[in-house]
Fold each of these.
Amino acid sequence: TVQQWNACVTANGCPRIAQPANTSPSAPVRDVSWDDAQQYVKWLSLISSQPYRLPTEAEWEYGARGGTATPYWWGQQMASGKANCKECGQPWSSDRPANAGSYPPNPYGLHDTSGSVWEWVADCWHNNYKDAPSDGSAWEEPNCRVRVIRGGSWREGAPYMVTSTRFRYDASVRQSQNGFRVARSLK
């Protein structure tokens, strides 16, 4: 959230990134690059003594699906009020994403896996999953600069809310629809 990001900024662990006027502290932070997200998880790990990181692409999809095998975690078809997008029902604004947790959680208890903001994951971009790691680890490449984002955003329509939706950006790009979520390693 904006509030969590600002705690990192105050501690000099993250860069100050301007958010639109009147942004709620509970809104997802946005305009962050993959590189910015790496600074946040490094800071969070340091202050918590816990191993935080971005989820791998495989972990992200597993969590977003919530144990389902359907296009959306809630079923085969778009359903109003399940995700934050321009064709997904209320609450919705063309100006900004809804506050974190404004929509019901999936069966794993995860909120906002469809819509809200695109979420950076750890992996390098590959056009398909041929030769991807089979153990759920991040698919890295030496000197990788193009990274994967998942989940769609509040600005896209219902077709982008399908759990399998993915896209890419350069790791240094800050874009108003891009944010992230964190994962914690248990080992």
Note: The CA atoms of residues 11 and 179 lie 20 Å apart.
Amino acid sequence: SSDYTVNYISDKPKLDVSSPTEGQNFTKADKNINVTGTTDPDNTVLVNGFRAIVDSDGKFSYILQLNDGDNTVIVQAQNSAGGTTQKEFKVSYHQ
């Protein structure tokens, strides 16, 4: 018989996005922005579907390239049991 490990985590993952903020405007040199924040150390974080780097303290960062006009940023944290927390906000970029 095989042994299996089952993770049961009833709490949703912690997710705090520190930068950028809702409605923030970027211009010219700020086409690439750093999306940063914190989560639980063992979580996976996705920014617009791309995996961010999460360090041993739970701090994450991802360099996101903005398009001209309004940009929707979706940040999602997932724990080992598959629970997710998501934050969505808009920022603007104008050349």
Note: The chain has a mean pLDDT of 93.
Amino acid sequence: MTPLALQTLIANGEDTRHQFKRDFAHVDSLAAELVAFANGLGGTLVIGVEDDGSVRGLSLQDVGRLNQMLSNAASQHVTPAINPVSTNVRIEQGQLVMVVQVPPGLNKPYMDLQGRAWVKNGADKRHVTAREEIQRLFQQSGLVHADETPVAHTTVDDLDLTLFADYFTRRYQRSPSSVSQSLTELLQNLGLMREGCPNLAAILLFGKAPEHRLPAFTIKAVAFPGTIAHDLSYVDSENLEGTLLEQYKKAMAFLRRNLHHVQSGPSFNSPSQLEIPALVFEELLVNALVHRDYFTQAPIHLFVFSDRVEITSPGCLPDRSNIHQLRYGVSRLRNPLLAGHAFHILPYQGLGTGIPRAAQAWENIALQDNPVANQFKAVVQRPLPLPGNVEKEGSKAESKAESKAESKAESLDLRVLIALQKGGALNKAHIAEALGLRNVSGQLNAQVRTLLNRGHIEMTLPEKPNSRLQQYRLTQVGMQVLATAPKPSA
């Protein structure tokens, strides 16, 4: 490191990867700093500098003593041992400073001589005591996997044995009953049971109601009318629960009803397709479900905005993985057991091909790895709709009745506005009743979404955000539209 580079580093202050210390009097204190860097992203320890950035400097005797202490700490007071690199730098003012660079560890978790694991917490460090965080450190080093963890208080009765039997027969071309093993032995041999109870992979793939045992491992799906997430204004919202296959199917259905559909050919009778190839979401959703961090108690977020779709998974990329490697199909399995079985259940190709396949089908995909927030996000940009080439879910225009269909849609728009004007705040069922519809049809759902997007109506705040009785009311814009529009025919 050059003197100029060091002065710039000091001027920028401390952060998660840069720590200043005036001196070290005890080897245990130095070992704790090394452990914290090794358990994280690595970092640089600058000795001879105060916390506020003022340079005190070191004598040659100090440098000799600290180098000996560093060697002792790295080899004898850190387990497993690490290999930091020290450099002595004399800055322009003449002070001598010792710079210690610690690479991110490959054998996490690292501990000090007392068996304590330390991690960085902003510019400081803290002692890790939470079981979940220690598990994650072991996971990063490949010593433990969340998908193999037994789910407490579960038995074989918590599994859908019919679902498991169908999977086993399809994969191995024979029924479980034909195998000369008990069901418990069979599940253990497949890696789906440990310590007498099903593990996380078994519950996620074959559980009767996984959300009861694992409530955090679901998908939270929300469609917003604009380009920002909003607590009060949304078009559609649903908690997607069930097995991983059920969550995947529900997520695809959510996307199909909240994205535009584009005609695949010039004829009005041509089948419609999603504005973005379905393959893109198939790959990204499966990637999120299979490779997320199951030591993190949080759902996957599927957000649909007017200009993009975001899929956010708990857990940043595993150690030694980066976004560039992902795009070239180089990946590291965080949940190898789950991935092995999911290959035969979900539309999962494995071998790191998901991201490259999605990128090949749709170029406008941004991948964002955020170690600080411990999450990974895929952002899929939506195309601008082509006039006359977009149809909403539930509307099927016929070639000889295009103008008539558009007229009916406009008429229904106004009828919805009139119903809201007369009844105040109404839910979809009340609107359908006022219009004489037998149920809340796909056509009405599409019109409500259209009016929300246009700003003609807005949602009221429900007592429960996920309630299906979400009410709607006219906005000032909607009132103006209604005041200037001719009355629709019945």
Note: Confidence is low (pLDDT under 50) at residues 388-406.
